[in-house]
Amino acid sequence: MRxxxxxxxxxxxxHVVERLLxxxxxxxxxxxxxxxxxxxDPEHLHPGATxxxxxxxxxxxxxxxxxxxxxxxxxxxxxxxxxxxxxxxGFVGQNGVxxxxxxxxxxxxxxxxxxxLGSSMEIYGEGAYLCPSHGDVRPGSRRPGALEAGRFEPTCxxxxxxxxxxxxxxxxxxxxRTVYASTKLHQEHLARCxxxxxxxxxxxxxxxxxxxxxxxxxxxxxxxxxxxxxRQIETGRRPRVFEDGGQRRDFVHVRDVARATVLxxxxxxxxxxxxxxxxxxxxxxxxxxxxxxxxxDSRLWPxxxxxxxxxxxxxITASPARAAEAIGFRAEVSLAEGVLDFVRTGV
Length: 347
Known about the structure:
Order of helices and strands: EHEEHEHEEEHEHEEHEEEHEEHEHH
Number of strands: 16
C-alpha cells in the first residue's frame, strides 16, 4: 500500500515510517525539517522511504505528495510547551493552514481512503474528576493565588470540595487551554469535515498521551518532560519536579504509539472517530523522575521544587478501552521497561 506520512522525519513519524516499511508498504514522507525540532540533519531516516523536504503550506508540494496514495498518516505539526500568542501565527500556519492545504490537495486528487491524524490529549485540557457530592465534574482553570500558596489540586466547581481524578474517554468535551491544543482540535475538525464531504473517506484521530522513547528530541521546543528529566540526570543535576510532583500523566512508549498508528492505518475495518492512545496505567511526575534515576543507576534523586506554570493542568489521564475494541491496540511496554530503554538508547 502506498502511504503518505507527513512529518515522517520527526520523533513519532520516524518510528511509524520504519514500521510501515518493515511491513512492505510504499512510504512517501513530506517534512519541512523545521529547525525548531531539527536543529541538525535527522539521523534516523529509513532509506527505504521517498522523502520530499517541503512545507505542507505549499500547494504544489502537497499536490506532489498525495499523488497515488492509498492512505494518509498526518503527523506534521508545530508543538511547544505552551503555544502562546507570541507564536500564534506559526502554530496556526503549520497546524491549521498546513492541514487545510493537505486536505485541499487530497480533495483535488479525489482521495477517499483512510486518514490517521496524530492528535493530542492536550485538547481535553484539565482531566476528569469525581466529586463525592456531584459525581463527574470538569473543573476550570486553577487560580494563581491557590497555586502560589501550594494548593495544586483543583476543587469541585460546584461545592469547592476535594476531587478524585478519573480517566477520560473520547466523548469528553474538549477544553483546549493553549494555542497548540486549539490548533490540534482544529485539525480534528478540518479532517472530520473532509470525511463528511467525501463518502468512503475515514479519519481516525489518535489522541496521543505523553509519548517518550528513543529519538525523542532534546533541547528543542519539542522536548518533553521525560527528556528534560533525563538530560538533567545525565549532566549531574537532580531532576527538578514542579508543583509537589503529584501531577498524573500517562506515559506511553513511542514503540506502542507507532504500533497504534499502524494498526489504525491497516486494521481490517477502519475506525472513524477519535481514539485515546495511552497505557491506562498513569503515574505521577515524581514517580517518572524517580524511575529515570533508578534506570540511569544514578545517585541523584528528584528535587520537588514547588514551582508551577499557570496554564498547566493538574491531572490528565484517559481510558484506552475504545482503541482496544476498535483497532486492537493495547500498550505493551511497561514504564519500567520503557524508561530503561529510554536511558540506554539516548537521543
